[in-house]
Amino acid sequence: MVNGIRISLLLASLITLPSVPAQTLGEYWGTAEREEEYYRIVDLPVPEELSLECGSFEVLSDGRLAVGTRRGEIWLVKGAFDQYPQPTFHRFASGLDEVLGLGYRDGSFWITQQTEVTRVTDTDGDERADLFETISDDWGFSHYHEFAFGSKPDPEGNIWVALCLSESYRSKVPFRGWCLKITPDGQTQPVCSGIRSPCGIGPNEHGVMFYAESQGPWNGSCSLKVLQQNGFMGHPVSFNWYDLTDALGPKPPEPESRSRLVVERERVPQLVPYAVVFPYIRMGRSISGFQVDRTGGEFGPFRDQIFIGDFSLSVMMRATTEQVNGVWQGACYPFREGLATGLLTCQFTPSGDLLMGGTNRGWPVRGPEAYSLQRLDWTGKVPFEMLKITAAADGFDVQFTKPVDPQIASRPETWTMGAFTHIYQQGYGSPEVDRTVPVVTEAVVSQDRLSVHLTVSGLVKGHVHEFDASPLRSAAGEPLLHVNAYYTLNEIPAP
Length: 495
Hints:
The chain has helices at residues 32-38, 261-267, 406-409, and strands at residues 39-43, 54-59, 65-69, 74-78, 88-93, 101-105, 108-113, 116-121, 131-136, 148-150, 159-163, 179-182, 188-193, 198-203, 209-213, 222-226, 231-232, 276-278, 287-292, 306-310, 316-324, 327-336, 343-348, 354-359, 371-378, 386-392, 395-400, 416-422, 432-436, 439-445, 451-457, 463-468, 484-489. With 495 residues, it is mainly beta. It has an eight-stranded antiparallel sheet with strand order 19-20-21-22-33-32-28-29. The longest helix is centred in the N-terminal third of the chain and has 7 residues, at 32-38.
């Protein structure tokens, strides 16, 4: 690997960054009290001396939780899944560097740290790691911001690594801003370029590898993006590493700053659009680790959906994706506010609860704690929610967790919509621009009253389409728990 002088991570906590905007103080979506009725926050006590800054989780077959930390440790936790947890902690490994990827396979932990993918093994059975093997270190390191987020082993045993840029506008050492796939035998295979600042990587609900991207240069808002082979994720500063490999083919054309993504897709064939845009502040500020609910309904009605945290605003959200005309797109939805700190990682437990962990180190966060380990437990009550939105040739299909009141749901005026996009630009972030007002002209309720087909006049390819269904009620008269959702319409389905 390329060596460099390591800037102490302590410096990260001294950087002066903008405070969280005033409108996010207090309640965020204003639904915390009602959310508690359906999903209860459970604190897992952590000994104060541990300073457990969770960066990654893995559930082990013996019922323990493994925690990789930003402080370079792996902890084994007993009792994390108990109904009333009083967990105990055992340090398995230390001396690592920002463990932001953790999986277990073939008797070893496979971890991603800033400088390498490492296999960590306890060879003598004393519950402490004694063998640390570098699997790949084929990328550079020179700056504290050069985080590396690694997936769990995929079905073939590969680790996918999304590499942060050196800074928002620089890629100082090899492959910063790229995704690399590391095979079990240590081969390094470039996947794509153009990443800015990832904070989560893994499969979507269809088993396709995605990553979470942060708002900033060339990214008008946070988003989920597909890690498309030979693709360009949008930030051109890492083009310099095309000189080191021909694995991705020719260098993409330079995008034009202050254009629109839908326009630049026509000019730059490798450019991969955002699959799901999270409108800035309304749906987080720095989205992070995510995992698909494979609990089979143990976590409520949202099976096979993506659950994704936010670092800055300490909230958990949902997302769903679909492929239309060969392009990934989908929607995001509010889920749970009021969490204790900045979320970095989440993991479903064997009993169907959702573990969450993180830290406030480096950047301001809304949650009050320096670090935390928490769990969301479903109470067994089903909230009335927009379950899933999918695109149709003439509008959208909206599914619900409970039957709707057909009289209210069939009124077009029940549904308020808006649409916008962002400036695709070198500058940091973007305002919401090119606003339009799509109009629902017809709303047809299904026979089971669990879905509504919306015919919409004014669909705009490339825009985020906002939904506000405040007047809607369930068949039992309940209001929606969350009235908003946001669909990124990269492609309009054929009739």
